[in-house]
Amino acid sequence: MLSDDDHRKAAEAILKAERERVPCPQLSKTFPGMEIADAYRVQDLWAEARIAGGARLAGHKIGLTSRAMQMASKMTEPDYGRILDDALFNDGAQIRTDLFIKPRLEVELAFIMGEDLSGPGCRIYDVMRATEFVVPALEIIDYRTEVPRAIVDTIADNAAFGAIVVGGRTVRPFDVDVRWIGATLSQNGIIEESGVSAAIMGHPAAGIAWLVNKLAAVDAGLKKGQIVLGGSFTRPVDIRKGDVIQADYGPLGAIGVSFV
Length: 260
Fold this sequence. Notes:
Blueprint: H1 4-20, H2 27-30, H3 36-52, E1 57-63, H4 67-72, E2 79-84, E3 88-90, E4 94-95, E5 104-113, H5 124-130, E6 131-141, H6 151-156, E7 161-166, E8 182-187, E9 190-196, H7 206-216, E10 227-229, E11 237-238, E12 244-248, E13 254-259
Parallel strand pairs: 1-10, 3-7, 4-13
Antiparallel strand pairs: 1-2, 5-6, 5-10, 5-11, 6-7, 8-9, 8-12, 12-13
């Protein structure tokens, strides 16, 4: 484990990179002894600083939900980060690309909590019962550290969260089969990606149940009204200034945004 002073220095490096839009050296190189627990502590300090600066915790995101991504990161489970309210966009938004360093975009589902939910022992049906709505969402991912990155770099960097876009049709979780929600992602009129929500650990609520149980270990949980991004079911697509994005979820509607 790193010292408290090292945790603070690492969080300050991420904050500076985010503020100046210039990636910092990998924390795993600056602090070679960094472990997973250290990385989450750095994320905690980053979030505390951002909230002290006026942001509000709006929810959580889950990453590394696909087996391929876990293997690439040499992990056996997902990771998680925070969603802050100053990184929320609605369908139709014009999003400034200079808010990010090197943005990429993924297709996801967002779960809106209808009641508090805590672990341990949380299962998929507990998540479904506690969810008020499911809504189409796009996650913009962005890294504040240089490459190549270790998993501790990504976790400390708030699991590479950049922003979230929500839109489309809001549905109650039992009104559709949330395992089989499909979507296509078009970039400048060309379909670049497609996927189905069952690709998220077999069920898009599975990652959320995992998150609830992980948060229980630090005496935390999900709160009513919070947004939880369940994980991507498409490959990330690089975003550039001038891009127009359309994600079509079929019966659940579509999300359209442009980058300026």
